[in-house]
Amino acid sequence: MDRREFIKKSFLIGAGFSFLSSMPFSAHPSVPRSRVVQISHSNVQKGRHFRQDVLTEMLNQGLAKLYSTEHPDQVWKQLFSSRDVVGIKVNCLSGKHGSSHRELVDVIIEQLQRAGVSPGNIIIWDRLNADLENAGFQINWKDRSKPLCFGNDVAGYDDRLYLNGSVGSLITRTVTHLTTAIINIPVLKDHGIVGVTLSMKNFFGAIHNPNKYHLNAGNPYVADLYQMEIIRSKVRLIVCDALVAQYEGGPPFKPQWSWPMNSLLLAVDGVALDRVGWEIIERKRREKQFPSLKKAGREPVYILTAGEKGLGESDLNKIDWQTLAL
Amino acid sequence: MKTLPGQPVKRRDFLTLCSAAGSGLLMGRLVPGISLPDARAGEVPHTHEARWYEKLPHKKVRCKLCPKECTVDDRERGYCGVRENWGGTYYTLVHSRPCTYHVDPIEKKPLFHFLPGTTAFSIATVGCNVDCKFCQNWQISQIRPEQATNLDMPPEKVVRMTRKSGARSIAYTYTEPVIFSEYVYDTAQEGNRWKIKSVMITNGYIQEQPMRDLAEVLSAVKIDLKAFSEKYYREVVDGELKPVLDTLVLLRKLNMWTEIVYLVVPTLNDSDKEFTELAKWIRTNLGPDVPVHFSRFYPQYKLQNLPPTPQKTLERAREIARAEGLHYVYIGNIPGHEGENTYCPKCGKRLIHRVGFFVEENRIEHGKCPYCGQEIPGIWK
Q1: Region B38-65 average pLDDT
Q2: Is B166 a domain residue?
Q3: Which domain holds residue B166?
Q4: CA angle B210, B213, B216 (to 5 degrees)
């Protein structure tokens, strides 16, 4: 039995078809549609690592703020149940330093387990095994006593061509077949072609042909992809990793243009989060006397397009941008 | 132009459509599996440095192969998906790694004035530098090397297999050979050593220098001229018209035997005005002897919402082009149509009788019409 068959069979049997009965969205706790919470902690970094106790505090306080509650553990339980198979979409293109941090993913997994999701029903995923390994994750496509972790090269792609507007792609089976919910963990960083790469752009890692969709600074491709129901309906939470952010030279990690932002951005509205992330990068570029992304010829207009399509809020004045420093 | 939002197209439908189209193109080994479990992406070999690119600061590179001129960051790929920047050096990931091979009649390319009745050993790697919404081979042209099963076929092996098959030429085809130009060059060079000709079946979306380099080793080129408007190229092809026209003019200057295919897509590139402008441009810039094939479109890939091209439209295109003075105008994808035959432009006699991809009769003698002595341009032996 090869890896793909194994994964397919183990999910069908082990998960008891749980993914076929995903929780309807209306059962989830409500959140102001356009709220984005930016939470930072000056002591989150310790040496070359990030403190998990601090990350846990940041994550839960940020979640509490996002949902206007004092009980983040209840939010986790309302967002995810034992019946869910949760995909954690990381961004691993940039090695250990410029990717979604392993420590943050571990903290999220811990919270999921506390909410009742079993380890074997958690899948850390990105395009390639090699990318995941380079970012510090350990590939595991077999042992369901702990979280699974594999790339699209193991999961394969759905046979069907998904079409929407300018985009026609095969989508990884991790999205189409293996998961009921997704937590999106992009990294806050500049992108040399499309301006910024944040939550919407992170789903280029879900399709077989991302190289086709960088023309015209990704507009309208990024928005068209994010509009696909098969993807967007599964995203229950976005936790943008802004522990180390980058304002120039992305997507590869460039230390000379990165800074320790020591922050997380939380939202359920990917468009709003991306608009806020874009603004943060523009401010940093101004501070460092770099030209705006528009002047650099790569303004991420796709974010505005996504707003126009009704996929979320792209007007900065209408976004409820909350900042919290611990 | 409309697509079908959220409506999937199954691979089975794709295959059905293709076979219905009578193309026969997807037979044999042409359709590989996608994302096979043992495909180890990220472990694509970095063994063949790309030939046409320049290095930029901060480990970036700029591709100089096609007019897109992708600027590519470290560990990233260009639009074609088969060239990767690895630490500031640009590599082709598909040299010697075709995803398919097949022995085809040369008429299938189609090349009608090039060794008629012979076969071409045809190879392709994955990848393409455009994204035509009607692509009939999107399952190999629009994927990346790690998503296919690739063969190990260095140029020497390709030539050896060609000789064994009895084919007279090697065709670089099915996907877009521009993106595997280094492999084309090396294989054609090796083939020439054994008197095996090479033909490139391409969209012509390539920069001047690589085209000049390739022309040194090629014997013929077929250009897919997808339309005669920038709008169509922008909206349907994801490319540009002007560089393709420049390539055609360059090939003419280089005396390269060239034929043109124009896929007629209903409502998008089928107006009399466009046919007329196209024919005038060809006659003025390339001369009246360049064969032009008007081919029938069948709905597939992202263009499922249009009907197949009516036969009358193709006949109208042919009439217009001939009226504008073009000598060799053909109709493609309608097996048995008289527009598949070659007629003498002087005496009007039928010289080559074709049915589908097969030559029933070839009356051309020493490159001339046996009835009136008119020279018929082409490569006949």
Answers
A1: 83
A2: yes
A3: 11-34+96-362
A4: 150
The span from the CA of A71 to the CA of B178, in Å, is 59
Contact list in B for residue A152 (CB cut-off 8 A) is: 35, 41
Given a cut of 90, whether residue A96 has pLDDT beyond it is no
Question: Would you state the structure tokens that stand for residue B243, as one six-digit string?
Answer: 């560089």
Residues 6+ apart with CB under 8 A from A97: A244, A253, A255, A258
pLDDT in tens, B189-245: 999 999 999 999 999 999 999 999 999 999 999 999 999 999 999 999 999 999 999
| Domain parsing of chain A, residue ranges | 3-15+33-325
Is residue A41 a contact partner of residue A57, using CB atoms and an 8 Å limit?
A: yes
**CATH ID of A3-15+33-325, from 3.40.50.11440, 1.10.443.10, 3.40.50.280, 3.10.129.10:** 3.40.50.11440
> Which of B6, B11, B73 is opposite residue A252, by nearest beta carbon?
B73
Secondary structure (DSSP) of A193-217: TTEEE-TTGGGGGGBS-GGGG-GGG
Tell me whether residues A128 and B34 touch, CB distance under 8 A.
no
SS3 B103: strand
What is the model's pLDDT at position B35? 33
Calculate the alpha carbon distances from A177 to A2, A15, A156, A314, B322 in Å: 18, 12, 10, 30, 54
Q: Cβ of B150 under 8 Å from any chain A Cβ? A: no
Q: Which pLDDT belongs to residue B33?
A: 30
The distance between the two most distant Cα atoms of chain B, rounded to a whole number of Å, is 67
pLDDT surpasses 60 at A198: yes
Q: Is residue B52 part of a domain?
A: no
Say how far apart CA A203 and CA A187 lie, in whole Å: 12
- Nearest chain B Cα distance for residue A5, angstroms: 9
Residue A209, Cβ density class (10 Å: 0-12 exposed, 13-18 middle, ≥19 buried): buried
Please give, rounded to a whole number of angstroms, the shortest distance from the CA of B327 to a CA of chain A. 38
Domain holding B166: CATH number?
Answer: 3.20.20.70
User: B71: which chain A residues are within 8 Å (Cβ-Cβ)?
Assistant: 192-193
The distance of B358 to chain A (nearest Cα, Å) reads 34
Q: Please indicate whether, in this complex, the C-beta atoms of B4 and A163 are within 8 angstroms of each other.
A: yes
Instruction: Name every chain B residue with its beta carbon within 8 A of the beta carbon of A230.
Output: 6
B148, closest residue in chain A (CA to CA):
A153
CA distance A317 to B71: 34
| Residues A18-67: tens digit of each pLDDT | 433 333 333 466 766 799 999 999 999 998 899 999 999 999 999 999 99
Question: What one-character-per-residue DSSP string does B123-147 give?
Answer: EE-S--SS--TT-TTHHHHTS-GGG
Report the gap between the CA of B81 and the closest CA in chain A (Å).
6
The domain tally of chain B equals 1
Banded pLDDT at B19 (limits 50, 70, 90): very low
Please indicate, yes or no, if residue B64 is contained in any of the structural domains: no
- The pLDDT of residue B200 is 98
* Closest C-alpha to B172, from B35, B243, B162, B164: B162
B272 in any annotated domain: yes
